[in-house]
Amino acid sequence: MSKLVSIIIPSYNYGFVIEQTLENLLDQSYTNWEAIVVDDGSSDNTSEVVGKFAAKDSRISYIVQKNSGVSVARNLGFKHSKGDYIQFLDADDLLSKEKLTIQVEFMEQHPETDISYTDHLYFETDKPDIVYPDYEMNNHNWLPKVNAAGYEVVNTLIYSNIAVVSSPMLRREIIEKVNGFPEFSNYTEDWEFWFLCAINGAHYSFCDNDAAKTLIRIHHRNTSRNIQIMQAGELQFRRRIATSINNSTLLSPEEKEKLLDRNASSTQKLYKYMMYHANLVSVRQLKILHGLVNTKTFISYYFKALNYKRKALFKKSR
């Protein structure tokens, strides 16, 4: 008998697209799945839309929670799931028709793999036939492709995220091992979850098959993001990276030293970028920036940023 795949779908006011997402699941070539939609306190027509699908197909269930964020919703969905394999899926995104079939076969053939992940494509909601390998639509595929565990994967995840959330298929046990998604994370919950899996020994494998892809929708809800708040979330995550590396029993002392140095360098570069591009007369922005580092570091970068902006202004005036 084929293994059950649990598809966990958090949704907050995505009634305008979730019908397409659920129709997409009904069109999957793999049929032994359950879909758990977790409504994160929506005020739109999500309940009505999902309710129609749940009434027609017993594989689809609907849970409502008060608005608590996407990580809480994913974790709640996981608690209600029964699958051997787990597929996370945002309420506005889609899966290629063969994705579940191909990844289940891949996981069965590679028992050492805890997390298999696929390629992805982005599309604008009003132009679904035009796809891009990157969110910025610059035809740049940022996806790192690894088949490893331990140091190599941790090192990859220090530099950048490894996959969009709907790309991987996971064995149930690895999610249980890391206690699900970090509910305190701010804008980096997916990236931090993959990092936690890696620092706990998860073996990642890229499933290189063009027929297995996830399709990420670009629309008004996910383009209106506060970049500075996202960057602040990354800086806070990088602090937790350092703690996790120091506490790791997976890594050797030499590996820890290398990873800590690289994380510190990335942290420094990000904070410098944030300060140099901040509005230095905005009290709100300065409060955010001051809260991310100690006062001495903040003052040092503040005056460096002033000097940078002074030089840039002088060049323009010449």
From TrEMBL:
Domain of life: Bacteria
Cross-referenced Gene3D superfamilies: Spore Coat Polysaccharide Biosynthesis Protein SpsA, Chain A
Pfam families, A to Z: Glycos_transf_2
Family matches, as InterPro entries: Glyco_trans_2-like (IPR001173), Nucleotide-diphossugar_trans (IPR029044)
UniProt GO molecular function: hexosyltransferase activity
Residue ranges constituting the Glycosyltransferase 2-like domain according to the UniProt record: 6-117
Protein name: Glycosyltransferase family 2 protein
Organism expressing this protein natively: Dyadobacter pollutisoli
